[in-house]
Amino acid sequence: AQSVAQPEDQVNVAEGNPLTVKCTYSVSGNPYLFWYVQYPNRGLQFLLKYITGDNLVKGSYGFEAEFNKSQTSFHLKKPSALVSDSALYFCAVRAPGGGADGLTFGKGTHLIIQP
Amino acid sequence: NAGVTQTPKFQVLKTGQSMTLQCAQDMNHEYMSWYRQDPGMGLRLIHYSVGAGITDQGEVPNGYNVSRSTTEDFPLRLLSAAPSQTSVYFCASSPSLISGNTIYFGEGSWLTVV
To answer: A11, A36, A81, B10: least surrounded by Cβ within 10 Å?
Structure first.
Protein backbone atom coordinates (compact mmCIF):
# COMPACT_ATOMS: atom_id res chain seq x y z
CA ALA A 1 0.00 0.00 0.00
CA GLN A 2 1.15 3.52 -0.73
CA SER A 3 1.77 6.20 1.87
CA VAL A 4 2.66 9.88 2.03
CA ALA A 5 4.50 11.75 4.76
CA GLN A 6 4.47 15.48 5.31
CA PRO A 7 6.97 15.87 8.15
CA GLU A 8 6.05 19.43 9.11
CA ASP A 9 2.69 20.31 10.62
CA GLN A 10 3.41 23.99 10.07
CA VAL A 11 5.83 26.05 8.03
CA ASN A 12 6.38 29.74 8.71
CA VAL A 13 7.90 31.95 6.04
CA ALA A 14 8.31 35.70 5.72
CA GLU A 15 6.62 37.33 2.76
CA GLY A 16 8.98 37.58 -0.20
CA ASN A 17 11.17 34.68 0.94
CA PRO A 18 11.28 31.32 -0.85
CA LEU A 19 9.15 28.56 0.61
CA THR A 20 9.37 24.79 0.65
CA VAL A 21 6.75 22.34 1.84
CA LYS A 22 8.14 18.83 2.16
CA CYS A 23 6.61 15.56 1.02
CA THR A 24 7.97 12.03 0.84
CA TYR A 25 6.14 9.01 -0.48
CA SER A 26 6.18 5.24 -0.58
CA VAL A 27 4.61 3.34 -3.47
CA SER A 28 5.31 0.27 -5.56
CA GLY A 29 6.22 1.23 -9.09
CA ASN A 30 6.26 4.66 -10.66
CA PRO A 31 4.31 7.18 -8.60
CA TYR A 32 1.71 9.69 -9.66
CA LEU A 33 2.10 12.64 -7.29
CA PHE A 34 -0.17 15.58 -6.61
CA TRP A 35 -0.29 18.77 -4.57
CA TYR A 36 -3.55 20.34 -3.43
CA VAL A 37 -4.23 23.53 -1.48
CA GLN A 38 -7.13 24.14 0.89
CA TYR A 39 -8.20 27.59 2.03
CA PRO A 40 -10.35 27.93 5.19
CA ASN A 41 -13.83 26.42 4.81
CA ARG A 42 -13.17 25.58 1.17
CA GLY A 43 -12.57 22.46 -0.89
CA LEU A 44 -9.25 21.20 -2.18
CA GLN A 45 -7.86 22.97 -5.21
CA PHE A 46 -5.49 21.17 -7.54
CA LEU A 47 -2.06 22.82 -7.78
CA LEU A 48 0.12 20.50 -9.83
CA LYS A 49 0.99 16.90 -10.55
CA TYR A 50 3.89 14.71 -11.61
CA ILE A 51 3.14 11.90 -14.01
CA THR A 52 6.32 11.38 -15.99
CA GLY A 53 9.03 13.35 -17.74
CA ASP A 54 10.69 16.50 -16.41
CA ASN A 55 11.36 16.27 -12.69
CA LEU A 56 10.45 19.94 -12.17
CA VAL A 57 6.72 20.47 -12.46
CA LYS A 58 5.16 23.91 -12.66
CA GLY A 59 1.65 24.58 -11.44
CA SER A 60 -0.86 27.20 -10.44
CA TYR A 61 -0.15 30.44 -8.54
CA GLY A 62 3.61 30.27 -9.22
CA PHE A 63 4.13 27.01 -7.38
CA GLU A 64 6.43 24.27 -8.58
CA ALA A 65 7.49 20.89 -7.27
CA GLU A 66 10.57 18.78 -7.76
CA PHE A 67 10.30 15.02 -8.11
CA ASN A 68 13.31 13.16 -6.73
CA LYS A 69 13.07 9.43 -7.30
CA SER A 70 16.18 8.47 -5.32
CA GLN A 71 14.94 10.35 -2.26
CA THR A 72 11.26 9.47 -2.89
CA SER A 73 10.38 13.12 -2.43
CA PHE A 74 8.09 15.64 -4.08
CA HIS A 75 8.67 18.95 -2.33
CA LEU A 76 6.51 21.97 -3.14
CA LYS A 77 8.33 25.24 -3.74
CA LYS A 78 7.76 28.87 -4.58
CA PRO A 79 10.51 31.44 -5.14
CA SER A 80 8.75 34.34 -3.40
CA ALA A 81 5.96 33.79 -0.88
CA LEU A 82 2.81 35.89 -0.69
CA VAL A 83 0.58 36.38 2.35
CA SER A 84 -2.26 34.97 0.22
CA ASP A 85 -0.35 31.66 -0.02
CA SER A 86 -1.24 30.99 3.63
CA ALA A 87 -3.32 27.81 3.56
CA LEU A 88 -3.28 24.07 4.23
CA TYR A 89 -1.30 22.06 1.68
CA PHE A 90 -1.74 18.38 0.94
CA CYS A 91 0.57 16.05 -0.91
CA ALA A 92 -1.02 12.92 -2.38
CA VAL A 93 -0.03 9.83 -4.33
CA ARG A 94 -2.09 7.66 -6.65
CA ALA A 95 -1.17 4.07 -7.32
CA PRO A 96 0.16 3.21 -10.76
CA GLY A 97 -1.65 0.71 -12.93
CA GLY A 98 -5.15 1.90 -12.15
CA GLY A 99 -6.32 4.37 -9.57
CA ALA A 100 -9.56 2.79 -8.36
CA ASP A 101 -8.66 3.40 -4.76
CA GLY A 102 -8.09 7.06 -5.33
CA LEU A 103 -5.56 9.29 -3.71
CA THR A 104 -3.59 8.60 -0.55
CA PHE A 105 -3.03 11.88 1.25
CA GLY A 106 -0.48 13.16 3.68
CA LYS A 107 -1.75 14.78 6.87
CA GLY A 108 -1.29 18.27 5.50
CA THR A 109 1.04 21.18 6.25
CA HIS A 110 -0.16 24.57 7.40
CA LEU A 111 1.75 27.24 5.53
CA ILE A 112 1.81 30.62 7.25
CA ILE A 113 3.26 33.58 5.41
CA GLN A 114 4.09 36.47 7.70
CA PRO A 115 3.90 40.04 6.36
CA ASN B 1 -19.16 24.61 -15.88
CA ALA B 2 -20.08 23.95 -12.23
CA GLY B 3 -17.61 21.09 -11.65
CA VAL B 4 -18.35 19.07 -8.51
CA THR B 5 -21.31 20.34 -6.48
CA GLN B 6 -22.06 19.21 -2.93
CA THR B 7 -25.07 19.92 -0.74
CA PRO B 8 -25.63 20.76 2.04
CA LYS B 9 -22.63 22.88 3.03
CA PHE B 10 -23.37 22.62 6.76
CA GLN B 11 -25.53 20.17 8.70
CA VAL B 12 -26.13 19.32 12.33
CA LEU B 13 -27.58 15.89 13.11
CA LYS B 14 -28.66 14.16 16.27
CA THR B 15 -27.21 10.76 17.08
CA GLY B 16 -29.20 8.06 15.31
CA GLN B 17 -30.62 10.27 12.60
CA SER B 18 -30.07 9.49 8.95
CA MET B 19 -29.23 11.84 6.13
CA THR B 20 -27.89 11.98 2.60
CA LEU B 21 -25.07 14.16 1.33
CA GLN B 22 -25.64 14.99 -2.29
CA CYS B 23 -22.92 15.15 -4.93
CA ALA B 24 -23.23 15.94 -8.61
CA GLN B 25 -20.68 16.54 -11.34
CA ASP B 26 -21.26 17.90 -14.83
CA MET B 27 -17.98 16.83 -16.41
CA ASN B 28 -19.11 13.35 -17.50
CA HIS B 29 -16.49 11.79 -15.23
CA GLU B 30 -16.52 8.03 -14.78
CA TYR B 31 -14.84 7.99 -11.40
CA MET B 32 -16.41 9.53 -8.31
CA SER B 33 -15.51 9.19 -4.67
CA TRP B 34 -16.19 10.39 -1.14
CA TYR B 35 -13.53 11.35 1.38
CA ARG B 36 -13.70 12.50 4.96
CA GLN B 37 -11.27 14.99 6.44
CA ASP B 38 -10.38 14.91 10.11
CA PRO B 39 -7.82 17.12 11.87
CA GLY B 40 -4.30 15.73 11.66
CA MET B 41 -5.38 12.79 9.53
CA GLY B 42 -5.55 14.16 6.03
CA LEU B 43 -8.32 12.84 3.81
CA ARG B 44 -9.46 9.24 3.88
CA LEU B 45 -11.43 7.45 1.19
CA ILE B 46 -14.92 6.26 2.22
CA HIS B 47 -16.43 4.83 -0.98
CA TYR B 48 -15.83 5.17 -4.67
CA SER B 49 -17.50 4.40 -7.98
CA VAL B 50 -15.97 3.64 -11.35
CA GLY B 51 -19.21 4.11 -13.27
CA ALA B 52 -22.99 3.99 -13.03
CA GLY B 53 -24.09 0.92 -11.10
CA ILE B 54 -20.61 0.15 -9.77
CA THR B 55 -19.44 1.07 -6.27
CA ASP B 56 -16.79 -0.19 -3.89
CA GLN B 57 -15.47 0.44 -0.41
CA GLY B 58 -12.52 2.61 0.46
CA GLU B 59 -10.47 2.84 3.63
CA VAL B 60 -13.26 3.87 6.07
CA PRO B 61 -16.63 2.63 4.74
CA ASN B 62 -18.40 1.61 7.97
CA GLY B 63 -21.59 3.56 8.68
CA TYR B 64 -21.93 4.85 5.11
CA ASN B 65 -23.79 3.71 2.01
CA VAL B 66 -23.49 4.87 -1.57
CA SER B 67 -25.19 4.26 -4.89
CA ARG B 68 -24.52 5.41 -8.44
CA SER B 69 -27.64 5.30 -10.57
CA THR B 70 -26.41 7.93 -13.02
CA THR B 71 -23.02 9.15 -14.19
CA GLU B 72 -23.68 12.58 -12.68
CA ASP B 73 -24.78 11.76 -9.13
CA PHE B 74 -23.09 9.96 -6.24
CA PRO B 75 -24.95 10.45 -2.93
CA LEU B 76 -23.49 9.42 0.41
CA ARG B 77 -25.93 8.11 3.02
CA LEU B 78 -25.40 8.04 6.76
CA LEU B 79 -27.78 5.38 8.04
CA SER B 80 -27.60 6.09 11.79
CA ALA B 81 -25.36 9.03 12.56
CA ALA B 82 -22.79 8.75 15.33
CA PRO B 83 -20.60 11.47 16.91
CA SER B 84 -17.57 9.75 15.34
CA GLN B 85 -18.97 10.78 11.97
CA THR B 86 -18.53 14.45 12.76
CA SER B 87 -16.22 15.48 9.97
CA VAL B 88 -15.85 17.38 6.72
CA TYR B 89 -16.91 15.36 3.71
CA PHE B 90 -15.60 15.88 0.21
CA CYS B 91 -16.94 14.48 -3.00
CA ALA B 92 -14.48 14.14 -5.84
CA SER B 93 -14.45 13.08 -9.48
CA SER B 94 -11.97 12.15 -12.17
CA PRO B 95 -12.32 11.38 -15.87
CA SER B 96 -11.35 7.74 -15.45
CA LEU B 97 -9.36 5.22 -13.46
CA ILE B 98 -6.13 6.21 -15.15
CA SER B 99 -3.79 7.09 -12.33
CA GLY B 100 -2.49 10.23 -13.99
CA ASN B 101 -5.91 11.84 -14.19
CA THR B 102 -6.43 14.75 -11.84
CA ILE B 103 -9.10 14.28 -9.15
CA TYR B 104 -11.32 17.33 -8.68
CA PHE B 105 -12.99 18.10 -5.37
CA GLY B 106 -16.21 19.75 -4.32
CA GLU B 107 -16.39 22.52 -1.73
CA GLY B 108 -17.12 20.17 1.15
CA SER B 109 -19.94 19.42 3.58
CA TRP B 110 -19.39 20.18 7.26
CA LEU B 111 -21.29 17.65 9.36
CA THR B 112 -21.70 17.76 13.13
CA VAL B 113 -23.36 14.88 14.99
CA VAL B 114 -24.49 15.72 18.53
So the answer is: B10
